[in-house]
Amino acid sequence: MKRQLLVMDAEGTDRIDRYLAEHCEGLTRSHLQKLLKSGDIFVNGLSVKPNYKVNAADRIEFEMPEAKEPEIVAREIPLDIIYEDDDVLLVNKPKGMVVHPAAGHADDTLVNGLMAHCRGSLSGINGVMRPGIVHRIDRDTTGILIVCKNDAAHNSIALQLKEHTITRRYEAIVCGVIKEDEGVIDAPIGRHPADRKKMAVNVKNGRRAVTHYRVLERFKGYTYVECRLETGRTHQIRVHMSSIHHPVLGDAVYGPARCPYALEGQTLHAGVLGFVHPRTGEYMEFHAPLPEYFTALLEKLRK
To answer: What is the topology classification, in CATH, of domain 2-63?
Structure first.
């Protein structure tokens, strides 16, 4: 089965074997190196070796005959759709929903719901497991996610993500009281050197990551903040806020093991998404209201 991958976040320094190992689930670096050495991986139509350095907008193709991806089951799942046209769809993702099928989540993901709603009218650039998905948010993060219905829209949004021109603003409650009213965290993020399931500020092997934050409200022991993403690395806000000793409240991975409130994961919400429409060229901006659990927690902290 042929896989295709459009490179979006490389900076000309990543070896292709390392890049693919991080971006293709279920493939080891050693397996990828064998495919590269045998000439079975192509970049922009040409076979490359393991030391090839990937660049933004590279199109990678390779055959994986022994890796049969399961058929994605279309399932009627209620979707909170904020906006939809022939090119894009914006959905307000609830807490606990996984974006695309993975181990333990075969038919209850956002993609399963999109397959039923869009009836196959989704971009195919990111493969059959992630139709329409050009970026994602964590399972326990709520808020706006953009879905692309065709490859032209997908390429346009992917380029805007690469050029950091998409507006992405999040709201979060973090541990501790932040003294300054606003700040910028400019620290590279990469795989955790000891725990490959986690990300970390990684100066040696990380990619540049920039988060702008400003204080919205202060409480006893906590701070309500807005975070604006300049880049979009995996777990970026969670890793960055933890790195300045203000982890997101409820984050069991990057924050304290114990939480004084009954929460299901981090209090993080993707509230604003703005982009240039791929067909009209018009800038559009959308807002998703805070989920009920978040507003209830704010009221509790105010008291």
So the answer is: 3.10.290
